[in-house]
Amino acid sequence: MKLREALRDAAGRLEAVSETPRLDAELLAAFALGCDRNALLLHHLDGKVPQGFADLIARRWASEPVAYITGQRDFWSLNLKVAPGVLIPRPDSETLIEAALAHFGPQAPRTVLDLGTGSGALLLAALIEYSEATGLGVDRSAEALATATENAHRCGLAQRAVFQKGNWAEGVDGSFDLVLCNPPYIEAGCTLPRDVVDYEPAEALFAGVDGLDDYRVLAPQIGRLLAPSGCACIEIGHDQGESAAALFRAEGLSVAVLQDLGARDRCLIVRHAP
Protein backbone atom coordinates (compact mmCIF):
# COMPACT_ATOMS: atom_id res chain seq x y z
CA MET A 1 0.00 0.00 0.00
CA LYS A 2 1.23 3.46 -0.88
CA LEU A 3 1.05 6.29 1.61
CA ARG A 4 -1.72 8.09 -0.27
CA GLU A 5 -3.93 5.02 0.14
CA ALA A 6 -3.06 4.70 3.82
CA LEU A 7 -3.95 8.37 4.32
CA ARG A 8 -7.32 7.83 2.65
CA ASP A 9 -8.08 4.87 4.89
CA ALA A 10 -6.86 6.64 8.02
CA ALA A 11 -8.94 9.72 7.29
CA GLY A 12 -12.02 7.54 6.88
CA ARG A 13 -11.36 5.92 10.24
CA LEU A 14 -10.80 9.26 11.98
CA GLU A 15 -14.08 10.77 10.77
CA ALA A 16 -15.71 9.34 13.89
CA VAL A 17 -13.48 11.33 16.27
CA SER A 18 -12.22 14.38 14.40
CA GLU A 19 -13.60 17.37 12.51
CA THR A 20 -10.41 17.39 10.41
CA PRO A 21 -9.68 13.71 9.75
CA ARG A 22 -7.62 14.13 6.58
CA LEU A 23 -5.50 16.90 8.09
CA ASP A 24 -4.91 14.82 11.23
CA ALA A 25 -3.80 11.84 9.17
CA GLU A 26 -1.41 13.97 7.11
CA LEU A 27 0.13 15.62 10.18
CA LEU A 28 0.69 12.25 11.82
CA ALA A 29 2.21 10.79 8.65
CA ALA A 30 4.55 13.77 8.37
CA PHE A 31 5.53 13.29 12.00
CA ALA A 32 6.29 9.63 11.38
CA LEU A 33 8.42 10.57 8.38
CA GLY A 34 10.24 13.36 10.22
CA CYS A 35 9.19 16.03 7.74
CA ASP A 36 6.59 18.78 7.56
CA ARG A 37 3.18 18.44 5.92
CA ASN A 38 4.19 20.37 2.80
CA ALA A 39 7.08 18.00 2.16
CA LEU A 40 4.77 15.06 2.74
CA LEU A 41 2.30 16.27 0.13
CA LEU A 42 4.98 17.16 -2.39
CA HIS A 43 7.33 14.21 -2.12
CA HIS A 44 6.01 11.25 -0.16
CA LEU A 45 2.45 10.38 -1.22
CA ASP A 46 3.62 7.64 -3.56
CA GLY A 47 6.14 6.28 -1.08
CA LYS A 48 5.88 3.60 1.56
CA VAL A 49 3.77 3.94 4.67
CA PRO A 50 6.16 5.08 7.44
CA GLN A 51 6.87 2.82 10.35
CA GLY A 52 4.65 3.56 13.34
CA PHE A 53 1.96 5.37 11.34
CA ALA A 54 -0.73 2.84 12.27
CA ASP A 55 0.05 3.26 15.98
CA LEU A 56 -0.21 7.04 15.68
CA ILE A 57 -3.60 6.74 13.98
CA ALA A 58 -4.75 4.37 16.73
CA ARG A 59 -3.84 6.98 19.35
CA ARG A 60 -5.78 9.66 17.47
CA TRP A 61 -8.73 7.28 17.06
CA ALA A 62 -8.74 7.00 20.87
CA SER A 63 -9.22 10.83 20.86
CA GLU A 64 -5.68 11.81 21.92
CA PRO A 65 -5.02 15.28 20.42
CA VAL A 66 -2.63 15.44 17.48
CA ALA A 67 -0.58 18.11 19.27
CA TYR A 68 0.03 15.82 22.25
CA ILE A 69 0.93 12.91 19.98
CA THR A 70 3.48 14.94 18.02
CA GLY A 71 4.52 17.15 20.95
CA GLN A 72 4.20 20.33 18.92
CA ARG A 73 1.74 22.87 17.58
CA ASP A 74 2.06 25.80 15.17
CA PHE A 75 0.84 29.14 16.50
CA TRP A 76 1.18 32.47 14.68
CA SER A 77 4.61 32.12 13.02
CA LEU A 78 6.01 29.82 15.71
CA ASN A 79 6.36 26.09 16.17
CA LEU A 80 5.83 25.40 19.87
CA LYS A 81 6.32 22.43 22.14
CA VAL A 82 3.12 21.24 23.80
CA ALA A 83 2.60 18.44 26.28
CA PRO A 84 -0.16 16.95 28.44
CA GLY A 85 -0.93 19.28 31.33
CA VAL A 86 -0.59 22.41 29.18
CA LEU A 87 -3.43 23.88 27.09
CA ILE A 88 -2.97 23.45 23.34
CA PRO A 89 -2.72 26.84 21.56
CA ARG A 90 -5.56 27.45 19.13
CA PRO A 91 -5.90 29.65 16.03
CA ASP A 92 -8.74 31.61 17.70
CA SER A 93 -6.20 33.02 20.16
CA GLU A 94 -4.25 34.61 17.31
CA THR A 95 -7.05 37.21 17.32
CA LEU A 96 -5.36 38.73 20.39
CA ILE A 97 -2.11 39.29 18.50
CA GLU A 98 -4.01 40.79 15.59
CA ALA A 99 -5.79 43.11 18.02
CA ALA A 100 -2.48 44.25 19.51
CA LEU A 101 -1.00 44.94 16.07
CA ALA A 102 -4.03 47.01 15.12
CA HIS A 103 -4.00 48.95 18.41
CA PHE A 104 -0.34 49.94 18.42
CA GLY A 105 0.31 50.40 14.71
CA PRO A 106 3.86 51.74 14.27
CA GLN A 107 4.14 52.62 17.99
CA ALA A 108 5.40 49.25 19.19
CA PRO A 109 4.97 48.28 22.85
CA ARG A 110 8.15 47.85 24.85
CA THR A 111 6.79 45.77 27.72
CA VAL A 112 4.44 42.78 27.45
CA LEU A 113 2.68 40.80 30.19
CA ASP A 114 1.01 37.45 29.53
CA LEU A 115 -1.25 36.29 32.38
CA GLY A 116 -1.88 32.54 32.40
CA THR A 117 0.88 32.07 29.86
CA GLY A 118 0.51 28.29 29.44
CA SER A 119 2.82 27.25 26.60
CA GLY A 120 3.97 30.86 26.23
CA ALA A 121 2.22 31.11 22.85
CA LEU A 122 0.79 34.63 23.19
CA LEU A 123 3.84 36.18 24.81
CA LEU A 124 6.28 34.67 22.33
CA ALA A 125 4.12 35.62 19.34
CA ALA A 126 4.07 39.22 20.59
CA LEU A 127 7.83 39.26 21.09
CA ILE A 128 8.36 37.94 17.56
CA GLU A 129 6.31 40.87 16.24
CA TYR A 130 7.89 43.47 18.53
CA SER A 131 11.64 42.94 18.30
CA GLU A 132 12.54 45.60 20.90
CA ALA A 133 10.05 44.41 23.51
CA THR A 134 10.62 42.33 26.62
CA GLY A 135 7.99 40.20 28.28
CA LEU A 136 6.84 38.51 31.46
CA GLY A 137 4.73 35.36 31.49
CA VAL A 138 2.86 34.31 34.64
CA ASP A 139 1.23 30.97 35.36
CA ARG A 140 0.38 29.01 38.50
CA SER A 141 1.31 25.71 36.84
CA ALA A 142 4.95 24.65 37.19
CA GLU A 143 4.47 22.33 34.20
CA ALA A 144 3.24 25.22 32.04
CA LEU A 145 6.14 27.43 33.10
CA ALA A 146 8.64 24.72 32.20
CA THR A 147 7.03 24.34 28.77
CA ALA A 148 6.93 28.11 28.19
CA THR A 149 10.58 28.45 29.17
CA GLU A 150 11.55 25.68 26.76
CA ASN A 151 9.54 27.36 24.01
CA ALA A 152 11.31 30.66 24.62
CA HIS A 153 14.62 28.90 23.99
CA ARG A 154 13.15 27.01 21.04
CA CYS A 155 12.10 30.32 19.43
CA GLY A 156 15.31 32.19 20.23
CA LEU A 157 13.53 34.52 22.66
CA ALA A 158 14.97 33.41 25.99
CA GLN A 159 16.87 36.70 26.40
CA ARG A 160 13.65 38.73 26.20
CA ALA A 161 11.13 36.52 28.00
CA VAL A 162 10.95 35.89 31.75
CA PHE A 163 8.48 33.54 33.44
CA GLN A 164 7.31 33.43 37.04
CA LYS A 165 4.84 31.44 39.08
CA GLY A 166 1.72 33.27 40.22
CA ASN A 167 -2.07 33.38 40.28
CA TRP A 168 -3.00 35.96 37.65
CA ALA A 169 -1.51 39.34 38.64
CA GLU A 170 -0.71 38.55 42.25
CA GLY A 171 2.92 39.53 42.84
CA VAL A 172 3.23 41.39 39.52
CA ASP A 173 4.48 44.96 39.90
CA GLY A 174 4.80 47.79 37.42
CA SER A 175 2.84 48.72 34.35
CA PHE A 176 2.90 47.20 30.87
CA ASP A 177 2.20 48.53 27.40
CA LEU A 178 0.50 45.29 26.35
CA VAL A 179 -1.27 42.76 28.55
CA LEU A 180 -2.34 39.45 27.01
CA CYS A 181 -4.56 36.86 28.63
CA ASN A 182 -6.44 33.73 27.60
CA PRO A 183 -8.22 32.70 30.80
CA PRO A 184 -10.52 29.71 31.31
CA TYR A 185 -14.01 30.70 30.17
CA ILE A 186 -16.05 27.53 29.66
CA GLU A 187 -19.09 26.95 31.85
CA ALA A 188 -18.78 24.09 34.32
CA GLY A 189 -20.66 21.05 33.06
CA CYS A 190 -20.44 22.12 29.42
CA THR A 191 -20.12 19.16 27.05
CA LEU A 192 -16.81 19.21 25.19
CA PRO A 193 -15.22 16.86 22.63
CA ARG A 194 -13.35 13.92 24.14
CA ASP A 195 -9.99 15.10 22.80
CA VAL A 196 -10.44 18.24 24.89
CA VAL A 197 -12.14 17.13 28.10
CA ASP A 198 -10.26 13.82 28.44
CA TYR A 199 -6.80 15.21 27.74
CA GLU A 200 -6.41 18.96 28.30
CA PRO A 201 -6.13 20.42 31.84
CA ALA A 202 -9.56 21.22 33.29
CA GLU A 203 -8.17 24.19 35.23
CA ALA A 204 -7.30 25.85 31.91
CA LEU A 205 -10.80 25.28 30.52
CA PHE A 206 -13.56 25.71 33.09
CA ALA A 207 -14.44 28.87 35.03
CA GLY A 208 -17.52 28.36 37.18
CA VAL A 209 -21.18 28.01 36.40
CA ASP A 210 -21.25 30.95 34.00
CA GLY A 211 -17.66 30.80 32.72
CA LEU A 212 -16.85 34.23 34.18
CA ASP A 213 -15.08 33.39 37.44
CA ASP A 214 -11.60 34.31 36.23
CA TYR A 215 -12.76 37.54 34.58
CA ARG A 216 -14.09 38.57 38.00
CA VAL A 217 -10.57 38.15 39.38
CA LEU A 218 -8.87 39.84 36.43
CA ALA A 219 -11.13 42.88 36.04
CA PRO A 220 -9.97 44.66 39.25
CA GLN A 221 -6.31 43.89 38.44
CA ILE A 222 -5.99 45.07 34.85
CA GLY A 223 -6.18 48.83 35.44
CA ARG A 224 -3.09 48.98 37.64
CA LEU A 225 -1.12 46.85 35.15
CA LEU A 226 -1.76 49.02 32.10
CA ALA A 227 0.53 51.85 31.06
CA PRO A 228 -1.38 55.07 30.27
CA SER A 229 -1.55 54.37 26.52
CA GLY A 230 -1.46 50.59 26.83
CA CYS A 231 -4.10 47.97 26.14
CA ALA A 232 -5.07 44.54 27.35
CA CYS A 233 -6.20 41.91 24.83
CA ILE A 234 -8.24 39.27 26.65
CA GLU A 235 -9.79 36.20 25.05
CA ILE A 236 -13.48 35.45 25.64
CA GLY A 237 -16.00 32.83 24.66
CA HIS A 238 -18.14 33.58 21.62
CA ASP A 239 -21.18 34.42 23.78
CA GLN A 240 -19.38 36.48 26.44
CA GLY A 241 -18.89 39.76 24.62
CA GLU A 242 -21.29 41.69 26.81
CA SER A 243 -21.12 39.73 30.07
CA ALA A 244 -17.31 39.73 30.30
CA ALA A 245 -16.97 43.31 29.05
CA ALA A 246 -19.37 44.55 31.74
CA LEU A 247 -16.99 43.35 34.46
CA PHE A 248 -14.16 45.52 33.12
CA ARG A 249 -16.38 48.51 32.46
CA ALA A 250 -17.49 48.34 36.08
CA GLU A 251 -13.84 49.02 36.99
CA GLY A 252 -13.89 52.26 34.97
CA LEU A 253 -12.11 50.80 31.94
CA SER A 254 -12.90 51.27 28.26
CA VAL A 255 -13.76 48.03 26.46
CA ALA A 256 -14.22 47.12 22.81
CA VAL A 257 -15.12 43.65 21.51
CA LEU A 258 -13.26 42.20 18.52
CA GLN A 259 -14.48 39.26 16.47
CA ASP A 260 -12.38 36.41 15.12
CA LEU A 261 -12.23 35.26 11.50
CA GLY A 262 -15.43 33.29 12.05
CA ALA A 263 -17.29 36.50 12.98
CA ARG A 264 -17.60 35.38 16.61
CA ASP A 265 -16.85 37.59 19.60
CA ARG A 266 -13.35 36.56 20.67
CA CYS A 267 -11.30 39.38 22.21
CA LEU A 268 -11.83 42.22 24.66
CA ILE A 269 -9.62 45.23 24.02
CA VAL A 270 -9.36 46.96 27.39
CA ARG A 271 -7.88 50.44 27.89
CA HIS A 272 -7.92 53.25 30.38
CA ALA A 273 -11.02 55.35 29.85
CA PRO A 274 -10.29 58.68 28.08
Model description:
This protein has 274 residues and is α/β, with parallel strands linked by helices. Helix content is 39%, strand content 20%. It contains eleven helices and nine strands. The chain has a seven-stranded mixed beta sheet with strand order 5-4-3-6-7-9-8, sandwiched between helices. A two-stranded antiparallel ribbon has the order 1-2. The chain is globular.
Summarize, please.
The chain is of the alpha/beta class and 274 residues long. It has helices at 3-14, 21-33, 37-44, 53-61, 66-70, 94-104, 121-129, 142-154, 194-197, 213-225, 241-249; strands spanning 72-75, 78-81, 111-115, 134-139, 161-165, 176-181, 226-235, 253-259, 265-272. It contains eleven helices and nine strands.
Could you list the spans in which at least 5 consecutive residues all have pLDDT below 50? Answer: none
The quaternary structure here is single chain
What would the principal axes of the Cα set say about the shape?
A: globular
- Strand line-up across the major sheet: 5-4-3-6-7-9-8
Largest sheet: 7 strands, mixed
Estimated structural class? alpha/beta
**Beta-strand percentage range:** 15-25%
- What would you report as the Rg, rounded to the nearest angstrom? 20 Å
Q: Estimate the helix proportion, in percent.
A: 25-40%
- Name the helix and strand elements from N-terminus to C-terminus, one letter apiece: HHHHHEEHEHEHEEHHEHEE
Mean pLDDT: 96
> What is the straight-line distance between the termini?
66 Å
**How many strand units?**
9
> Number of helical segments?
11
